[in-house]
Write a structure and sequence with these properties.
Number of strands: 9
CATH superfamily of one domain: Vaccinia Virus protein VP39
Order of helices and strands: HHEEHEHEHEEHEEE
Structural class: alpha/beta
Shape: globular
Strand content: 25-35%
CATH class of one domain: Alpha Beta
CATH topology of one domain: Rossmann fold
CATH architecture of one domain: 3-Layer(aba) Sandwich
Strand order of the largest sheet: 5-4-3-6-7-8-9
Bound molecules: S-adenosyl-L-homocysteine
Distance between the termini: 63 Å
Helix content: 25-40%
Length: 232
Amino acid sequence: MYRVIFVYALLFSMGTSMGQVGFKAQRENMVKTQLRNRDISNEATLEAMLNVPRHLFVPQNLRELAYTDGPLPIGEGQTISQPYIVAYMTQALQLRPNHKVLEIGTGSGYQAAVLSEIVDSVYTVEIVEKLGRSAEKRLKKQDYNNIQVRIGDGYHGWPKKAPFDAIMVTAGAEQIPPKLVEQLKEGGRMIIPVGPHRGIRQLVLVTKKKGKIKHKELMAVRFVPFTRKKEE
Ligand code: SAH
């Protein structure tokens, strides 16, 4: 009897450790083929994408697809962005280790984890309570201790923690929320998908220099919509 249990335990531990090795190899392959071979060259971004276990941020039945070149459903009608888009938006913010970053649209928590590998602190706001709470748990479990999750409408940003060195919005907005621009530091950068409801949107880079706000369209993208609380 003991021997049966022992053999089973051995097989189980081999299985899981082989799984981990498998995911690491898939992650290395993702970084090489989907990121480096395209236009992601920022080393901090590549390193973060190599480190964060994306398979732990997708539903269990989709783990095997975690490192494929596309977005995946995460429940509540929401999606985790394609790895390339996560890396592209991260790279565009020109992050530094001392930065404080605001993310709107926590979703699975994956993008927040990627940001937190590079910067000092990440503040992330999610409007769907269920998603926000489970992302918070997931991040705690993986020891991401420099991320704070808040449930609320990201349209208002996070005034108490402002200003931010960088802001990333991961839901498609029809307009740029003015309060987010206000909460950007002098010299700060914000990236946000902007465009018509459910249509193709443009990833817009907003910069604030000497008080002047500049907008630059970077590329066409598809994103789940930025929603608002009903009472507002
Ligand atoms: N960054 C996420 C993916 C985000 S999908 C990840 O890495 O997994 C977009 C998310 O934005 C969804 O979870 C959606 O609920 C959220 N969202 C939409 N409108 C919002 C708003 N006004 N404030 C905060 N979050 C919002």
